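Same chain as my last thread, 288 residues:
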Amino acid sequence: MAADNPPALRVADGSTVEIATCDCFEDQITHEGQDFGTLDWERINPATGPIYVEGAEPGDLLVVHIKDIRVADRGVMTTGPNLGVFGDELSQNVIRMVPIVNGEAVFSERVRLPLRPMIGVIGTAPATDRVPCGTPGDHGGNMDCTRITTGARLILPVNVPGALFALGDLHAAMGDGEVAVCGIEIAGTVKVQLHVLKGRTWPVPMLVNDDTVMTIASAQLLDEAATLATKRMAHWLAQEFSLDLAEAALLLSATGQLRVCQVVDPLKTARMEVPRGVLEGLGFTFPY
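reply #2:
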């Protein structure tokens, strides 16, 4: 993701866009016996875009309302040496093709999993750096947050004119942590509505859904990401609802849920969740 990527599409503020994506391997894996050496690792985690949103200027926020996620009829999983949490214990690469049948992921003959489609890579262009799509950060990117799913409103920074929004890396299902280095990686189509939000100084990325408001942060170490997500939420509470920092900290300690997004990317990602009802009691409203 970069400021100098030419837009693939220009849309008006408030537009609804349907975006088709490859899986995180750019659909390179076709069968379980495939040799890992045949993969082009420069093609991992592609994002479709970027989309230029008219009226989006640096300092604004981009609200991405995820309206629908539709996935293909087969996903893929893989793990092996130097991959994920178990990379120091595994001696060979393993590929598993995962058919999607009647709304379930057929993990094995004995295990079928409910579909929980979510978006792994989603973000806007950074102001100056060129960030690989596989790396998360304050611009979004490869956050692998299971809450980035249908119905959610993801709030991202606008660092360059038009925001230059892109997404990819869909999962048919994924557990928090993405511990083997993948979810059920899958191609698909995402429908989003894009709104420009002006006049707010919020600690993005943030996410709002029907139940929860959360801050998301990425850092070299998981402890650092967890601390950053928590402090961002506390300072936002203090700013938005006229709390002192101690009161915000106590509120988070009483009701906040600190959770892991992923531990396998170049930066680790965590989120701090607060029940929306608690915040609405303080006066929180959201325009989209």
